[in-house]
Amino acid sequence: MRFTRIATAGAVVAAGALVLSGCTQPYESEVVEGTEITIAYNESFFHFNDDSGAGNNTANGNVKYMVDTMFYYYDDEPKVVRNTDFGTYEKTSDDPLTVEYEINEGVVWSDGVPVSGADLLLQWAAMSGNVESDVAFAPATTSGLSLVTEIPEISDRGITLVYDEPFVDWELAFDVGVSAHGTYALAFPEEYADVQSAWDAYSASGEEDDFKSYSDAAKAFAEDATDAVVTAIQDGDTATIGALAKAWNEDYAYTTMPDNPAKFLSNGPYVIDEIAEDDYITLAANPLFTWGPSPHFEKITIRTIADSTAALQALQNGELDVWTGQPTADTLEIAKGIDGAQIEQRQEASYEHLDLTFNNGGPFDPATYGGDKDKAQKVREAFLLTVPRQEIVDKIIKPLDPEAEVRNSQMIIPGVEGYDKMVEENGSATYAEVDIEKAKSLLAEAGVTTPIDVKFWYPEGNVRRGQEFELIAASAALAGFNVIDDSEPNWEFTDPSIHAINPHDVAIFAWQSESLAISGSDQIFGTYTDPLLKGGNYNGYSNPAVDEGLKELETLTEPEDQLAAQIKIEQALWGDAYGLTIFQFPGLLVWSANVEGVSAMPLSPTYLWNFWEWTPTKAGA
Predict the structure, then answer these.
(1) 102, CA 20 to 30 Å: which among 49, 356, 372, 444?
(2) Which residues contact 176 (CB under 8 A, 6 or more apart)?
(3) What's the rounded Cα separation, in Å, for the pair 353 and 46?
(4) pLDDT at residue 341, as a whole number
């Protein structure tokens, strides 16, 4: 929904006036008219459904965090904070594990339609993997919800999840996703025609009466649409569920502002207002939002600036207010030289890793050698032995964090209890140092001809990853690998509708933790049969022992048992030459004198965690 920029600052926007005019205790908005804050991220928003495998990217998650409301969030300790302004959840039984969720009355989507049990049921259907349909849902993960195999009971605003087995992270397993009626509208657009016409009229006029007409039309449509969603799921209507799944997977992907409002329905403090492809996305305060603390800025613009130096120069020039990213020694010095800027350095819950692709017909795929798994294994091991992890840390990361070390675990963060024991036992010591001679020997044993072409992906334009690529390519060449720059900016290999199989032989990027959950690694390491269900397993990895360990981990409640299971999983990963962990991200957060209340947090969405507390200062008025 668009809002006209108001030239003068200082007045408070009467948010909620469209729906709360008759309330005895009206919601008091603290949004200051005419205020706007500009922040930056190194990638552009491209998918509204960040629960999908295709949309599971921080660039999308940053936007969704500010336009949606959830049952819980993490503060900057970090610890879980239950969001009782939005709704409640309660474990009502341990045997079987039963959790009841209830959304508060008055919580609505940005078209005025109440958030309902239908929205919760669609989320279960999409994220559990337990519904049959003509087209499968393609979620980023099914962790936890895969244990809820029976169709949940719902109420007007609630849902009850009954787990088949205990689940250690039950409190973090479920939340609201995209709207049920919006997804139905995308699946069956002809039924949405009246709502679309009303939206078009409101978009043209910006008048409150036209918004009311649009909202009334949306509510009338939603009555039938949500009933249709619920009935399809409860009755096992595979055709209707398949249409919903296709829309859920694909129709929320966009890089310019959609004409169809069903594509950006939200239930949080902000709504998407404007998108300029590969340039910026602007969010505007949601005038219907009344269920939580009020934000203060009327608009938030997220600019896409891949180059850290350029971002900091923009901040220095007053074109940017907050920046965090992948710093280098040079950018740290630039940040320190910005007048009036505040700087916070902190290790993040993100780690750099390098993954080898097992199933694309490349040098690490057994199929390339007639199905010879041992030969492919030797080639993988040989390549990993050439990766100069310590050199990468010394040259790129230590100038930012003198205490930085190579990370040697796929599942446990350095410094956390259990990390040292994990590293002692998981097999990562095999790759502790570069060993060119051993790499050559393995290639000779495999009987492969060098040079071996290796297509290496990193996000195009990412300076730090470009530096890593150069160091890796130079080292690998000494053993007979021809490492080819296969970078591109759009992460297309992560979208199964574009690439069912990853075309790159190596990919280097970061996984950013969104929670402190023990489970969830099946998203990355678990076997899949349908590419739509691969989640974050972009490299086609499969090991039954790992699958079994991941499933066991979901039900273990004692820390010592959890660590033992994680060690067994990692022993298999390192033994298979899956890939390498490289370093924990050093964090650098910089903000100008125009804003107060900015605070770092190690988990995703990092400093956005308390965006509603950001306050414009007199300097920014």
Answers:
(1) 49
(2) 68, 69, 70, 71, 103, 115, 119, 120, 123, 267
(3) 23
(4) 94
Residue 284 and residue 29 in contact, taking contact as beta carbons nearer than 8 Å: no
CB 602 within 8 A of CB 45: no
CA distance 495 to 544: 24
Q: In sequence order, what DSSP letters do the residues of 559-588 get, joined into one string?
A: HHHHHHHHHHHHHHHHHTT-EEEEEEEEEE
DSSP 8-state symbol, 488: B
3-state secondary structure of 42: coil
d(CA 45, CA 230): 30
Q: What would the two tokens of residue 119 be? A: 């929205």
Select from 345, 369, 366, 370 the least CA-distant residue to 357.
Answer: 366
Give 121's contacts (C-beta < 8 A, 6+ positions apart). 151, 152, 154, 159, 180, 229, 230, 233
HSE toward the beta carbon, residue 538, CA cutoff 13 A: 29
**Alpha-carbon span 82 to 70, nearest angstrom:** 9
Q: Which single residue is written with the structure tokens 């005038």?
A: 287
How many Cβ atoms from other residues are within 10 Å of residue 116's Cβ? 27
Residue 521 DSSP class? T
Would you state the torsion angle of the CA atoms of residues 272, 276, 279, 284, taken in this order, to the nearest 10 degrees? -20
Res. 611: pLDDT tops 50: yes
535 token code pair: 């989640």
Per the listing, tokens 């694909």 go with: 250
CA distance to 268, 270, 287, 302, per residue, from 66 (Å): 7, 6, 14, 11
The span from the CA of 424 to the CA of 420, in Å, is: 6
What crossing angle do the helices spanning 208-235 and 180-187 adopt, rounded to 10°?
80
- Which of 248, 245, 223, 220 lies closest to 233, judged by CA? 245
Identify the residue whose tokens are 């949004």: 31
As a whole number of angstroms, the distance between CA 256 and CA 273 comes to: 11
8 Å CB contact between 121 and 102: no
Say how many CA atoms lie within 13 Å of 302 toward its Cβ.
Answer: 30
How many other C-beta atoms can be found within 10 angstroms of the C-beta atom of residue 132?
10
Name the phi and psi angles at 549, rounded to 5: -65, -40
DSSP characters for 382-408? HHHTT--HHHHIIIIITTT-TT--B--
Strand blocks (E) in 242-341 = 270-276, 280-285, 297-304, 322-324
What is the Cβ-side half-sphere exposure of residue 570, based on CA atoms within 13 angstroms?
Answer: 25
The CA distance from 437 to 618, in Å, is 63
Distance CA 202, CA 210 (A): 5
The sign of the dihedral angle between the CA atoms of 439, 442, 446, 448 is: positive
CA atoms of 183 and 113, how far apart (whole Å): 13
Is it the case that residue 24 has pLDDT exceeding 70? no
Nearest residue to 584 via CA among 608, 596, 602:
602
pLDDT tens-digit series, residues 188-243: 999 999 999 999 999 999 999 999 999 999 999 999 999 999 999 999 999 999 99
Q: Give the model's pLDDT for residue 557.
A: 85
